[in-house]
Amino acid sequence: MARPDYILFDRNTKAIFWNLNRNAIQRMLDYDFIVGRSPSIVAIVAPTQNRKFEKFFHGTKEIMIPIYKSTAEAAEKHPEADVLVNFASFRTAYNVTIEAINIPTIKTIAITAEGIPERFARDMALKAKKAGKVIIGPATVGGIAAGAFRIGNAGGTIENIVKSKLHRPGSVGLVTRSGGLFNELSNVIARNADGIVEGIAIGGDRFPGSDFLDHLLRFQKNPQVKFMIMLGELGGDLEYRVVEALKDGLITKPLIAWCIGTISKHFAGEVQFGHAGAKAGADRETADAKNAALRAAGALVPNSFDEFPDIIRSVYEDLRAKGVIGEIEEPEVPELPEDYAKLVKAGKVRKPTNFICTISDDRGEEATYCGLPISEVIERDFSIADVIGLLWFKRKFPDWASKFIDMVIKVVADHGPCVSGAHNAKVTARAGKDLMSALATGILTIGPRFGGAIDGAAKYFKFAKEQGMDPFEFVDYMKNVEKIPIPGIGHRIKSTKNPDKRVELLKNFAKENFPSTELLDYALEVEKVTTAKKENLILNVDGTIGVLLVDMFRNLGYSDSEIDELINAGAFNAFFVLGRSIGFIGHILDEKRLAMPLYRHPMDDVLYDVKRPEGL
Ligand code: ACO
Ligand code: LMR
């Protein structure tokens, strides 16, 4: 059913909210919840947001409100919305308003921004009047249709709203300039009468889009409004429009009116009060002059602001006695659920966590690695190996160990384009895949035969040594019991004749810097046995790293079971994964730089042995 034109908002009013102001939107939805209506905001306009929606709460239920790039799009998708809550900044609010005035489905626009230039404010007001639209503001908190619709932050906290009976309609039509006094007065009205039907703060600017009289005339027509209250202020002459309307008999319901700023007469010069419009330029703009004119025209004007409560109470009681105002049944107000984050902060809830993190913390001003702020890591000139120490093993290793880790990363960084992982990364890059996919392909190639034999080498050499196997026994054991090649032994191209320089470097470093190299020494004895069989069955780079990492952790005081835990977790292979990623990335960038085409393997490099199954 169409609303009469004197009703701007009811319980079905739907609004578009301009600007992703999460707090104000949530406050409107909280109001909707406590008055028992459906969410009033159906769309958000935020041109700089790429998100499609934002989540909010309606009570405890999460709802999704769509976000649009323009008011036009939001209005087209939501023709049911006839209110625009314009929370744009003062730089943008004018354009947003002008656009909205021209959108047929939008009837009312509330503008919060302060500081819109006066000529823009006049232009908006003029254009809106011409188009038959209502503007509330600028520079306003907005207003409330009690029990139906709240604009933005009007009314303050939910506690204040309920205390001031703004959650259900009473009998008063209220119009003020200021939002702060709107809240104050709502409270006074709740305590001395039965609350408001609707309250509008027209805003503090000199040229508001709608003024006192516009709203009082609507209240006059609204049968729910039994008496009206206006709180004006010094400056401007908007209150005189009300004086004229009173004289012309356009306002017949009791009107209690007061203009604040009577104190101004005690100042020597012209004083600018809080609002842009609150400055009395001429005598008739003073609060005293306005109060006198309103009184003379028939408004009920107290002698001072302090008398406001008494006069409200007497009008209310009079109308009650006459049967104009009846009893109001107070509705049940559902409790507004508390925000979880707030309760956590106040230490009022506890909840088991799903994840544990013992290595880094991003909650403070600066993230920490194992308790050390990143800036300290930089200031103290920690190496990459030191950072690995902190994040993988939660300690800073002594220099010899850090240097060893650094060397491991350097020597495994690359081994040319022909090794399995690099080849796969290159083929993937040439298939047009992105760097991350090609890198992942390379990393996924790391396994027990290629680069990923470090864990296995550490495990089996350590086991054999712990079991007291001599090198021959160990080689037999691996062949006959485990039935697998010894991880860390053998190489496709390296051999006793073509030794792997990397292995030499690692061994020499360990011999010179490790307190002891027990497992390396054992592995070298095993190597003697395997190379005696075949010259390429050397202790390879994976094997050397594996046994030396065991020696390193032992020298660092790790127990056997702690080392086993690291091996089982894949921590040793991790060094190859990290180091070789450097090389893979290099190969991928190389492919991209050379703009290499799709790779297809030559057919003459494949032995085709395809036979048709018999009988098929
Ligand atoms: N332990 C014991 N015997 C072995 C081993 C080993 N690790 N590797 C090969 N052999 C033996 C084979 O049983 C075979 O013996 P046979 O001739 O008596 O049948 C012979 O050596 C040749 O075997 P191939 O598999 O042909 O050897 P290839 O040179 O092709 O293998 C490879 C090289 C894959 C590295 C192999 O030695 C192996 O699997 N090693 C263990 C895994 C490993 O350490 N990989 C890491 C390599 S380093 C890196 O990728 C960074
Ligand atoms: C490597 O480090 O990738 C090599 O040792 C493996 C290889 O096949 O050369």
From TrEMBL:
Gene Ontology process terms (BP): acetyl-CoA biosynthetic process; fatty acid biosynthetic process; tricarboxylic acid cycle
GO cellular component: cytosol
Known pathway: Carbohydrate metabolism; tricarboxylic acid cycle; isocitrate from oxaloacetate: step 1/2
Keyword annotations: ATP-binding, Cytoplasm, Lipid biosynthesis, Lipid metabolism, Magnesium, Metal-binding, Nucleotide-binding, Transferase
Matching Gene3D superfamilies: Citrate Synthase, domain 1 (1.10.580.10), Cytochrome P450-Terp, domain 2 (1.10.230.10), NAD(P)-binding Rossmann-like Domain (3.40.50.720), Succinyl-CoA synthetase domains (3.40.50.261)
Keyword ATP-binding listed: yes
Matches recorded under Pfam families: Citrate_synt (PF00285), Ligase_CoA (PF00549)
Protein name according to UniProt: ATP citrate synthase
Annotated organism of origin: Desulfurobacterium indicum
